[in-house]
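Colleagues,

For the teaching module next term, I've prepared a clean inverse folding example: a structure given as tokens, and then the sequence designed for it. I'd like students to try predicting residues themselves before seeing the answer, so please don't circulate the second half yet.
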């Protein structure tokens, strides 16, 4: 869903590009407990950037420091070139959309959206016009006179978004904005939220623990762990080329084979793996010399499965189907190798379950292309 205008160089790839949001060695300490640890991050104008990680990794604390609700223990925060590190929340060009939506129950939809503008003593005519425009943007005009308890969860989410956008902030922060919605509505709202973000052109930074949500909505994302950013990149970069075992494990399912490097060249690396019961050939180099212990990772959907042996000898092994997880559009095969290692292979369900050639306790061959695996050294 990445819809930034296509250019030869994206802003984050251009060393001359000036970041719109910049965090410089930002840390936050709560009584000796480090919540955020020396984070440096640049976000560019018009991005939909996500901070992704498990509970307690520091992502919400980082968001609250951007909002001005927490002051960094050290480091600097810049928004549009201005140092806002010590500025209070009310004096920042930032708005925040909370997970709970925090709508006033005694106010109508229209009054909730207009509330922030009234606090700024804007003229009644402008308040009316901007409120109407914001409600139109989120398709909630016809609910203007209703109260929050008369709305669905998805409608409350839209009202909260309208209230956040009506003040026209330079930066909108979203704290788990879709967590209260059911799966189907959440998927629908993801697309709507991205379309709205593109239409208004405001920079969004979202906190989420939902990997699919971050991958679907973000131009780029940062994976956090124990207060640190482990990797920053586009969804494709994070998924296909994780820099570490932590990131590889956190984003989706992945198979990992332990082994030792027996050949390291500029264009490939060869790993001997007892666990995989074959030689693993990866068609790109890695920072691992001959003799080094590494892990070779391959996503389940990249693993092919067959009942007869493939022509290739490397990146090819065999085992017994011990379990099949049926997910409707795909099935996940759990194949146990001679070493006892269980490998996952995801296959699309092109035929009905009863017609499938591979079933429980079958001996099958697993194989994959050299360019689809990666070497993990950390």
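(Answer key — instructors only)
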């Amino acid at each position: 869903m990445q819809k930034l205008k296509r250019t030869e160089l994206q802003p984050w790839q251009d060393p001359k590009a000036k970041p719109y949001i910049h965090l410089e060695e930002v840390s936050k300490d709560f009584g000796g407990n480090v919540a955020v640890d020396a984070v440096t991050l640049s976000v560019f104008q018009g991005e939909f950037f996500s901070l992704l990680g498990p509970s307690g990794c520091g992502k919400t604390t980082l968001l609250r420091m951007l909002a001005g609700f927490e002051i960094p223990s050290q480091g600097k925060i810049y928004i549009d070139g201005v140092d806002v590190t010590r500025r209070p929340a009310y004096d920042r060009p930032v708005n925040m959309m909370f997970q709970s939506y925090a709508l006033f129950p005694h106010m109508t939809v229209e009054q909730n959206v207009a509330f922030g503008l009234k606090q700024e003593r804007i003229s009644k005519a402008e308040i009316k016009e901007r409120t109407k425009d914001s409600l139109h943007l989120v398709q909630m005009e016809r609910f203007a006179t209703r109260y929050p308890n008369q709305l669905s969860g998805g409608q409350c989410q839209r009202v909260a978004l309208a209230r956040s956008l009506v003040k026209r902030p330079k930066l909108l922060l979203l704290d788990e904005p879709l967590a209260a919605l059911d799966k189907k509505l959440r998927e629908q709202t993801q697309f709507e939220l991205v379309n709205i973000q593109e239409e208004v052109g405001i920079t969004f930074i979202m906190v989420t623990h939902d990997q699919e949500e971050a991958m679907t909505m973000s131009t780029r994302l940062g994976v956090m762990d124990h207060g640190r950013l482990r990797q920053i990149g586009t969804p494709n970069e994070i998924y296909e080329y994780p820099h570490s075992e932590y990131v590889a494990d956190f984003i989706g399912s992945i198979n990992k084979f332990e082994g030792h490097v027996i050949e390291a060249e500029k264009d490939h690396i060869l790993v001997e793996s007892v666990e995989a019961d074959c030689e693993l050939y990866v068609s790109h180099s890695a920072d691992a010399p001959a003799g080094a212990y590494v892990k070779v990772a391959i996503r389940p959907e990249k693993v092919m499965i067959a009942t007869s042996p493939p022509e290739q000898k490397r990146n090819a092994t065999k085992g017994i189907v011990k379990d099949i997880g049926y997910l409707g559009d795909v099935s996940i095969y759990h194949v146990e190798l001679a070493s006892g290692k269980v490998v996952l292979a995801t296959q699309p369900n092109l035929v009905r379950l009863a017609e499938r050639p591979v079933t429980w306790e079958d001996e099958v061959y697993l194989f994959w292309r050299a360019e689809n695996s990666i070497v993990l050294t950390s």
